Amino acid sequence: TGGTVFIEPGTYTGAGNEVIFFGPDENNPRNMIVQSDPANGGSPANTIINLQGADEPAFALGPGLTAAAEVYGLTIENSNYVGGGGAISIGDSSPTILNCVFVNNHGSAGGAIILANSNTTIRECTFTGNQAVSGDLPVGGAIEIETTTEVTSGTFTPLVTNCVFSQNTAQTDG
Fold it and tell me: How crowded is residue 87: how many other Cβ atoms within 10 Å of its Cβ?
C-alpha cells in the first residue's frame, strides 16, 4: 500500500493543490489514504483545498484503486473543471470517500464527483452548491455515475450513503 498522508488544518490554494494522484503518477496508482490530521484537530471544517476556480479537479483517482484508497475529512471547494468531476474524478477505480464536504465545484459531468466504471463508496459527505455546467451533456449536479462504452463486461454498483445534498444543479439532468 501507499500509506497515509495526513494534511494539517489550513486552507490550501495555488499550484500543487490540484490533480493529485495516488502514487507517483496516474499510471502507477497506489492504495493510500489522504486525510485531515485528527491528531492536530483536523476536520472538514478546517482542512480545505480551495481550487480557486482552477480548470482541474483536486484528485484524479484511477485506474485500479480499491476501497483501501481513501479521501477522508477534507473540504474541496471552488473548482471550475471543464471535464467530469469538478473536485474528484474517478475512473476505472473504486476508492472510498468519507466525511468530506464539497462546495461550489463545477464540472461538465458531476459538479463535485464523477464515477466512471466504479464501485466507489461515498459516505457521510455533504454536497452544497455544486453544478454540472457546459460540455455536451452537463448532468449530475453533485455526482455523475456512468459506465463508459469502452467497458464490455462487468457491473458497477457504487454506494452513496448518509450524505447530505443541498442546492446542487445541472443544466440537463440531476
Answer: 35
